[in-house]
Amino acid sequence: MNNKQQSPVKKLLAIRGMGAALTAFVGLVIIYIAFGLINSAVFSGQNILNLLRSMSKYLLIGIAQSYVLITGNIDLSIGSMVGMSAMISATLMTTGMNPLLAILISLLCCLVIGVVNGYLVGKFKLPPFIATLGTMFVARGIAYMVNGNRNTDAIATGIGKEAADKFQNFFYYGKTLGVYNTFWIAMIVFIIFFFVLSKTRTGRHIYAIGSNVDAAKLSGVDVVATTIKTYLISATCSCLVGLILCAQAGMGNMEAGNMYEMYGVAAGVIGGVSPLGGTGILLGTLAGAAVWQTLENGLNMIGAQVGIQRVVIGVIVVVAVLLDVVVRNGKFGKRK
Amino acid sequence: MNEIIVSMNHISKSFPGVKALDDVHFELRSGEVMALLGENGAGKSTLMKILSGVYTRDDGTMEIFGKEYGDLTPKQAQEVGVAIIHQELNMCRHLSVAENMFLGRELAGKFTLDNRKMRQEAKRILDDLKIDINPDQTVGDLPVSKQQMVEIAKALSINAKILIMDEPTSALTAKEIEDLFRIIRKLKAEGRGIVYISHRLEELAEIVDRVTIMRDGQYITNGNFADMTMDQIITNMVGREIKEKFPRVSCEKGKKVFEVKHLNAGKMVRDINFSLYEGEIVGFAGLMGAGRTETTRAIFGADPKDRGEIWLDGQEIKINCPMDAIKHGVVLAPEDRKKDGLCTKLSIRQNLALPNLDMICNGLGVISSTKEDKLCEEAVQNLRIKTPNVEIDSGNLSGGNQQKVVVGKWLARNSRVVIFDEPTRGIDVGAKVEIYNLMNELKKQGIAVMFVSSEMPEVMGIADRIIVMCDGRITGEVMAQDTTQNEILTMATSFENKKIVS
């Protein structure tokens, strides 16, 4: 990438990871139009609104996983934290607790899991796959336990009805400026974390650790603290998605967020985040989440069965990574 | 100028099983280039890693700019003004030049990183050094020589007063070395102290003021470079008179077994030609990075060959992968036991059986435990592997015994050519002699033995004929009886386009 000529396009392309992100956006447009040509309902205003709303969940999960992937680690506990957050907030609200307080307690619980992940991986050097596999089971177990191994009743009944209605509107059913709130929440989170990753010291250190952890350490980067931060960010985003799922269902479901950690990997990887660490930008994750949701939505709209949907999505993920590997090998020669 | 800026006294450091440094002295003055010389494993890098805070010392004192320091961390060392440019370059290849230079001490505004300022500052330093590198370039896309320049620029951006360069020229071309020397002279003129570690003795005259010589983890001497002859330096580096216990058996030299013709593979294997005969051990001498390991790997089919022919017993054979080599009876005991030689988490039994599974499995691929037991028993007995049983993890064995397992993998087959790459590295004297005896045994059986070693005494003591490599080429061939270490060292440092000093 040579950016001696500073034309805006070249300047944009000179940003590392932008190439992969833009490729994903191009893919997104193609997929969207293709589905729209088959079934024009894909282009309808209501479908676009639905698309934006359901994409938001995957975007938040994608951000969570991308932060961890860029350091070269992985967080398998994301889906379980989503379930935990949904169950804890729902259970507390059915007792009539103020939603704000319920949210706070859910967040706190997720952050505890995040800290544990961060310490196990950063401080005690456990393989992230193992460490977060453990917390994945623990968090899911907690999700089961909070309401005695049962899903909760509807949150908008009895004493807390009014507050719970507000909660559901705020996170899922309400609109601002004609678009569902869920989308705006995801956008605000996206902008904050996009900024953190690309413009701050913490962000720089996250890339450095993923690129060469020894060099980072010898340059004075606090590897442990930075690793913990990535897992805390992952936990925060997971908590938010749990709240959204709780608002959507109007109750707590013990299986909420099942497999979401993998959806997060998929969103990141489609957008050019390398699971080997060091590369990828959140714009790519945004594109990846959109591709993912457009596929799901489009396949639904043209009447594809769940089975074929899974197959298509699986193939897309592998092809995206395959492209990444081929491009890398071409660019950097043989990898050791 | 010329004040003492670093003074290290009585420094000792042990690693498990090895005394890496023993009561070492080191002194550096401002405005000078100090060459730190010694053979592989003399402790040069270890000493410099202590100075730069990568390792902590066991004993001794360290003064920098007249102030005594205890254990430094890398970050503290940087703050004091010590910067080290490691032999294996240590950069984040995904980040840009400017990002790497300021890693760990980024300049920041109120909320965001001040990328513009960092880029400007990086540009200023690079311009100052007259290095033509764009600060926005991704480091992974730069050639090694440029990456090294970036490391130097990084050291200067923290305003390092003491620069340690560990083998900085090992990957550079003649032109790039010129560039590097220009920069070193400039840094010297600014009053910085530079420690220069290199195996390329012929380039010292260009920039070095003083030398410190180490050997086997001990301080030997220091002095002005101008007052020393190259012979004195080499004698001090190599030291001891060589009459150690190297068992030698004499055999009748038989017919030609193996021949390599015009072998080329990448940069480090260039037009290699040699033959191996029955009843002789051929030593491959040279400095680290001379291309010997690469040559063995290319012969064995572990790395791709660009061109070249391989002949065995008068017939050309094709080796495209290790399996081909093994089928023809050409086997390799690789340099890095733990990485390439053994599956350290598997048992001795599993390791010994691995390349021989074709011989001990029945038609369905089921392993016959009787055959496997027999194979293991023979290997343990023949090689005197010291272990209570063969179920122990091979990673838990001592270095010498590990090496025996590596060799044992191949002895069950009727090998014709056995290639040993640094078989005695990191193992104790007794085990070394056993390895030598093993090679002698193969030699007596008429098996061709190729013996790569960086330790001059053992090559001279064990090999019958010695081939010397430098920079990926064969630069000489001598009979072990009628050569001297100095002659070999001269051939091992005869780089292209450069004259030998002295």
TrEMBL record, chain A:
Residue spans crossing the bilayer: 12-38, 58-78, 99-120, 126-146, 177-197, 231-251, 263-287, 307-327
The organism's place on the tree of life at top rank: Bacteria
InterPro entries: ABC_transp_permease
Keywords, alphabetical: Cell membrane, Membrane, Transmembrane, Transmembrane helix
Matches recorded under Pfam families: BPD_transp_2
Recorded topology in the membrane: Multi-pass membrane protein
Location within or outside the cell: Cell membrane
Record-given protein name: ABC transporter permease
UniProtKB/TrEMBL annotation, chain B:
Residues annotated as domain ABC transporter: 6-241, 252-496
Keyword line: ATP-binding, Cell membrane, Membrane, Nucleotide-binding, Repeat, Sugar transport, Translocase, Transport
InterPro entries registered for this protein in UniProt: AAA+_ATPase (IPR003593), ABC_carbohydrate_import_ATPase (IPR050107), ABC_transporter-like_ATP-bd (IPR003439), ABC_transporter-like_CS (IPR017871), P-loop_NTPase (IPR027417)
Any Pfam family the entry gives: ABC_tran
Gene Ontology molecular function, alphabetical: ATP binding
SUPFAM superfamilies: P-loop containing nucleoside triphosphate hydrolases
Keyword Membrane recorded: yes
Alphabetical list of PANTHER family matching this protein: CARBOHYDRATE TRANSPORT ATP-BINDING PROTEIN MG119-RELATED, D-ALLOSE IMPORT ATP-BINDING PROTEIN ALSA-RELATED
Protein name: Sugar ABC transporter ATP-binding protein
Organism: Jingyaoa shaoxingensis
